[in-house]
Amino acid sequence: MGSIGMKNFKIRNLVLGEGEPKVCVSLIASNFKELFAEAMRVSKLDCDIIEWRADYFMYINDLEFMRKAAYFIRYAIEDKPLIFTFRTQEEGGGQAIDDDFYFYLNHYMIKTGLVDAIDLELSRLPEFNMNIIDFAKENSVKVVISHHNLQKTPSAEQLEEMLTDMKTLGATVGKIAVTPNDFDDVLEILKASNNMKNNHPEIPFMLNGMGEIGKLTRLTGELFGSVLTFASNGKQSSAPGQMSIEEVRSGLKLFNKEEEKRSDYFG
Ligand SMILES: O=C1C[C@@](O)(C(=O)O)C[C@@H](O)[C@@H]1O
């Protein structure tokens, strides 16, 4: 014990790390018309955070367009925290990007002052690009360091090591989504989460399993330590196995510790 409050952190006006995991949905659009419509639509959903999956957007090479797109999203979603994510193809993303432009784009988005957090993939962070993390922090932008495996689930030790590395590199929050192929893999994910929660209460993280088999892990964050969970935006999932916001909210409620306390009143 003694871990209460240690992994709390704030993105915009939202505190993560206490109570139920916060619910994030992805904004996916390929052109401006879709972007306008989707930004307005997701702004009305019952989610806590919006992730712009810019890897689906066709104008990524035009930075001025990117700034305008971010400006519109910022305006549409009002005070909800916004994560800028370019998911690379290697980790399940919508289009290819070279290393230099990946960092240039993230750097640029930090500079716009329009996004609250950026997502950087662990595998893309060789030492020479580490200054992007300092740059984000200097500009009050939170850093999500992420890892995705669309084939399998690494061992609990490997998952824990990755989350620890993410923190060492300067992540505000470490985020891992892997693919369980059976329920032993699900147990591996929960074991890694539980170990992180108990042994590293100072490291805020999200750890979930994708696909049908992984669904449970998207709901049990409050028990096992994940501070964030992704739900489908109602039109398009940004990863396999995402459930609707309603399903996620009722699942989170089912495992809510406050519910336990409430049942104490009845003996
Ligand atoms: O990292 C994640 C988690 C995710 O892969 C999921 O499993 O829901 C969805 C992605 O959009 C996001 O960037």
UniProtKB/TrEMBL annotation:
<feature type="binding site">
    <location>
        <position position="242"/>
    </location>
    <ligand>
        <name>3-dehydroquinate</name>
    </ligand>
</feature>
<keyword id="KW-0028">Amino-acid biosynthesis</keyword>
<feature type="binding site">
    <location>
        <begin position="51"/>
        <end position="53"/>
    </location>
    <ligand>
        <name>3-dehydroquinate</name>
    </ligand>
</feature>
<keyword id="KW-0057">Aromatic amino acid biosynthesis</keyword>
<dbReference type="GO" id="GO:0046279">
    <property type="term" value="P:3,4-dihydroxybenzoate biosynthetic process"/>
</dbReference>
<dbReference type="GO" id="GO:0003855">
    <property type="term" value="F:3-dehydroquinate dehydratase activity"/>
</dbReference>
<dbReference type="GO" id="GO:0009073">
    <property type="term" value="P:aromatic amino acid family biosynthetic process"/>
</dbReference>
<keyword id="KW-0704">Schiff base</keyword>
<dbReference type="GO" id="GO:0008652">
    <property type="term" value="P:amino acid biosynthetic process"/>
</dbReference>
<feature type="active site" description="Proton donor/acceptor">
    <location>
        <position position="148"/>
    </location>
</feature>
<comment type="subunit">
    <text>Homodimer.</text>
</comment>
<protein>
    <recommendedName>
        <fullName>3-dehydroquinate dehydratase</fullName>
        <ecNumber>4.2.1.10</ecNumber>
    </recommendedName>
</protein>
<comment type="similarity">
    <text>Belongs to the type-I 3-dehydroquinase family.</text>
</comment>
<comment type="function">
    <text>Involved in the third step of the chorismate pathway, which leads to the biosynthesis of aromatic amino acids. Catalyzes the cis-dehydration of 3-dehydroquinate (DHQ) and introduces the first double bond of the aromatic ring to yield 3-dehydroshikimate.</text>
</comment>
<feature type="binding site">
    <location>
        <position position="26"/>
    </location>
    <ligand>
        <name>3-dehydroquinate</name>
    </ligand>
</feature>
<dbReference type="InterPro" id="IPR013785">
    <property type="entry name" value="Aldolase_TIM"/>
</dbReference>
<feature type="binding site">
    <location>
        <position position="87"/>
    </location>
    <ligand>
        <name>3-dehydroquinate</name>
    </ligand>
</feature>
<comment type="pathway">
    <text>Metabolic intermediate biosynthesis; chorismate biosynthesis; chorismate from D-erythrose 4-phosphate and phosphoenolpyruvate: step 3/7.</text>
</comment>
<dbReference type="InterPro" id="IPR018508">
    <property type="entry name" value="3-dehydroquinate_DH_AS"/>
</dbReference>
<feature type="active site" description="Schiff-base intermediate with substrate">
    <location>
        <position position="175"/>
    </location>
</feature>
<dbReference type="Pfam" id="PF01487">
    <property type="entry name" value="DHquinase_I"/>
</dbReference>
<keyword id="KW-0456">Lyase</keyword>
<feature type="binding site">
    <location>
        <position position="238"/>
    </location>
    <ligand>
        <name>3-dehydroquinate</name>
    </ligand>
</feature>
<dbReference type="InterPro" id="IPR001381">
    <property type="entry name" value="DHquinase_I"/>
</dbReference>
<dbReference type="InterPro" id="IPR050146">
    <property type="entry name" value="Type-I_3-dehydroquinase"/>
</dbReference>
<feature type="binding site">
    <location>
        <position position="218"/>
    </location>
    <ligand>
        <name>3-dehydroquinate</name>
    </ligand>
</feature>
<dbReference type="GO" id="GO:0009423">
    <property type="term" value="P:chorismate biosynthetic process"/>
</dbReference>
